[in-house]
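Review box. Two proteins, two foldings.
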Amino acid sequence: MASIGRATALLASGTLVSRVLGFGRQWLLLQAIGGTGLIADAFATANQAPNTIYAIISQGVLNAVLIPQLVRAAKHRDGGQAYVNKLVTLGMVVFAFLTTAATLLSPQLMSLLGVHNPRVFDIAVAFALWSMPQVFFYGLYSLLGEVLNARNSFGPFTWAPVLNNIISIASLALFLVLYGPLPVRTVGDWPTLKIFILAGGSTIGIVAQAVVLFAFWRRVGLRFRFDFRWRGMELRTVGKAAGWTFAMLLCSQLAGIYQTRIANSASGPHQAGPQGITTTWLIFMLPYSIIAVSVVTAYFTRMSEHARDQDFGAFRRDYSAAVRQIVLLISISAAVLIVTAFSFSRVFTLDYVPYGFVLIGFLIGLVPSVVGFVSLRALYSLGDTRSPFVYTLIQSLLVVIGLTVCLSLPVDIRAVGIAVTVSIAGTVQTVLSMVFLRRRLHGLELRAVGQSIAQGFVAAAVATVLGYLTLFGVDHLGGHAGFATASKLTAIVAMIIVGVVMLAAYVLVLRAFRTPELMDAWGRLRRRVGRSQRAE
């Protein structure tokens, strides 16, 4: 468990730094092109296109298939060196093909994603052309990072996005210096250089994020050489597993494309269109990536090893431990973000009201989504890619049905409907994922998991009530309502005060329950403090 703890801490710290910089990048972006309007939504749509393609690569074939394959390859006489070189070479060829196809089809992709306004269509295509090379380098980053993760070198993969964000921030700063901060950009003032600095700067950051990972290969005993001799890689076995995963991701990404189309139907001034969805999703992903991804990435390799060794008792224990740790941390995160949703949104944009409601819509599904993420990676560890396809197909159908209903909603609440739809469908998906995993393992240690979820819910509910009372008091500082959203600074102050009160209440309730995960963490902290005092 010590190695898991160190790996989780390393992943969480890198992700935290990256996310903080990511928020800085998003804040600069909204100052440059605005939080709402045609230009903001066109850029959000164009920048989302390579992410959609990347999701099929990263969440699909790489995460589902490569970690188990790489763990097995490490047992080869050469430590997996030959297999890794063949795999990376093959990946580069596939990524290059996908990138070329996506670039050539940029106009069609923009139409597919719902950009139909002739005033902004050409600019959206130009944004997309500069953004599409990200497909290759996103894929390369995931592939190189998974190789390092499989050898228990977690740091580089987590810290590389920091470099990406630094470069992106620099390009946005240059944009603001040259063109000034304007809340809304007009359609007619976008020469090539301006488009390149905005979209091309983002792409350069992704390039650096991927290429820098090569520098860490020698630390894990690897040296890359192109190897096109793919015979003997068991590609038929890999392809069978990847086939289900590809089908699963195709379902979810088709639903995602439909979601972007519906969001574009609500595009306009003071409406939470694609840019609003993107920004609130970034906030939603803050605890998700820092906590869930960090914990699960550290456990995933170990669960793959347990599956390889047929040690399903240890597998169930690791799954249960991962879920309980995540639920403990995510419950309070979701509660704090819900209470401070409008203040958090105010930090980014003056259109904080529509942003805040969309954020709450996403956050109601945060806890189920992270539990589903653990279950998904557990199934992947077992080499099961068929089950995720089945329950993701059901989830995607629910999303499509819900989004179709959203079309009948008024434009000003359509984005909220999208967020709630995603949360409801994701909750159903999580329940189904646990059912499939329980069948596969012939049981799960669900009593401890259920107890952690119940205790976390009660503690978060108490913290939420106190949080709203605190927010009401903070909002009336100065004798009248509005302090919590009066400015970026007052919004941050309100968030800090409310967050501290809610965290204290949450911890006190969990201590009263004597929640094992909290007591273990408290014991480790006391021992560490005791050692520090003795050292002095």
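Next protein.
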Amino acid sequence: MTRDEGELLGGRYRLLRALPGGAMGEVWLAQDERLARRVVVKRTDAPDEGRILARMHHPHVVALHEVLAEPGPEAEEFWLIMEHLPLTSLAAVLAGTSEGRLPEEEGAPAWRRAAEIGLQLARALQAVHARGIVHGDLKPGNVLVGEDWFVKLGDFGISGAGGDPEETLEDGDRTPCTPAYAAPEVQRGARPSRAADVFSLGATLFALTEGRSVYGPLTAPPHELVARARVGRVAAPGRAGPLAPVLARLLDPEDPAARPDAAQARRLLEGVLRSRRRRWAPVAAAAAGAAALAVTGGLLWLPGVGGGRAAGAGEETEAPGGAAGREADPCALAATAELRAFGDTLLDTDYGNFDRCDVILTTPRGEEVDVMVDLNSAPAPEPASPTERLGGVRLVSEPPGDEECTRLLLLPDTTWITVRAAHWDGGSPGLCAVADRAAEHAAGVVDEAGGVPARRAAFPEGSLAAENACALLPVSVLAEVVPGTGADDTDVGFGDWSCEWYSTVTETEVELVFDRADPITAEDGVPARFSGFDAAVGAGADGPGTCVALLEYRSYPSEDGGTGHEKLALTVSGPGEGEAETEERCAAARELMAVAAAGLPRA
């Protein structure tokens, strides 16, 4: 029985207008007259879909309010009452483009946008699979996307939205599937699985970048796509750029067990976005810059017990935990040339806070290792591992982790340097050998120069590097928002570029850090504005129970000729990981970021 506009379901939901999609063609926009809100109602012959959605509470999965049973002409009809969002399907977005794929945008190439979308979907799948649920029909038609590219996964019943590319086929006893996106084993008759969901994720990202199915043109008849799928004929991407190796792993046509699971897919996509968001400087230019420092003997910060001094300036300065340490250049310690023994190296001078510098090492096997040098304020930590002497510097070798290896260099004035080699895609052999080489080089530079060499040039006018993070949040304001914070519980970071406060009453921590990274995206949280600056507030962005407010302060020309972005990152964390605790921390983050933003200088 087809419903009519204006009908009332369950004495509560007024049908407003029919919406496209749904295997039964019964999807409506409706008004919840009890709560005065818009909802989407969908008739389903699979009440199990309602039970599946009822178990899911995830930001990237469409929320189900209730399952409604209504009398029908022959049997009960089941209606899913779902959240209504001002979103459209990803399939509709692609259909509205000239080439049927994501458009190239300034600052956001199609492969990057696809990776951002894929990361959100991988997180959704990870949550879905953790509850023993298989989606079974991941495709652009079942992905809702907003203007800011925030996506939600929906339609957990195996259904089609019409049209050849997303037509759902059922051949006798064979599992229904969408030929353009279903895994080969499913199109041969196997039941959907977690591995098949991962393949469909890869097939969706392939379509976003290529404008076609992994099995051929989206305009091809479905039976042709099925024929190619059954023999495992999967095309290689031509426009996916750095995303291509990830797609190759997701789209393994022969061995479902060889595909990464959803959690591994998430980490792979995070790796693509993390590594490629850095703006790399040419190796030759970076090495020449470091050599120039050694030749000219530029301004040096010289560590010593009780403080350092600037060579050539002839005057004592305070220890570098405050503004006096800002001339120290972490990139002068980067082992760009020395690490070439392990592979190709690129220097990244514009990533993270102003007290760090990174060398991106690509091994002969194609693994990408981030080798970070980070300057830290006194006092140095008490070493938990044995130390050894490298000239006047003490070296602490921390036990290696699964994905990183860290070395600490303790300077005479108790300032310290962190050297870390990290590979975020599941670990890499030889990380500690890389970390050792990088740490030995940094210690040699410090020992020979008598300290950390100065920067080649001053920070540009208008940079956050001239600001004091602690001063942006007065303790009096903090104490009102987070009771129990005080000046005695303030931890000042290197160069005054970060500040951390701890509440002795609520055990809540507040951290404000200056950052350099890509512009704010939908992945960072709910869009916001503070004192005219673009921002985002992300619940759980730094782990369960946390809330992170990000503010984009300014953009600037980076050393590689691209565009860099300076940001403020304010994190509120504490005990308790429930929704109420997280929302309370987000309220505090919004209030505190509003204060910090108001104190920022204007260009």
